[in-house]
Known about the structure:
12% of the residues lie in helices and 52% in strands. The chain is mainly β and 130 residues long. The N and C termini lie far apart (33 Å).
Amino acid sequence: MNPDTRAMIAAVAFASTTGKTVAGLFDHAAGRDLRVAAERRGDQVQGFDGERNVAFAGTLPEIHDDGSKAFVSFTIDGEQVRGFDRASGAHFEARVGDGVVQVFDHAQSTWFAYDVQDAQATSSYLRSNS
C-alpha cells in the first residue's frame, strides 16, 4: 500500500472513530509532519491531502481518494477500523487511541504509527501528557 493511502486511512480512522477533526499527522515511519486533514459529519467524511494536493471524501463505508482514483472501504467497530484499499488490493487494520493511530498494512506486514494534530492548536498533538 502506498504511504499516502496509509496516511489518509489514519486521518479517516481517527475522524470517524472520535468525531474530532484532524488538522495534520506526524508520520513516525517518515519522521515528518504531513499536511493531511479530515473530518466526519454523520456518515460523510471529507478531507484533503496537502502533500499530494488532492481531496478524499465519501459516505462511509466507502471513501474515494482523488489522488489514486480509487475507493477505500472502512468497517468501524469502536476504536478498531478494518478495510480494503482497491488501488493496491491491500487490506488494513487501524487502532485509534490517545491521539495516535496505528495502521497495519497487510501487504507490508507492518504497523505504521501517526500522531494526530489538534485542529484547535496547530502546533500540538492530541496525545495526552500523562
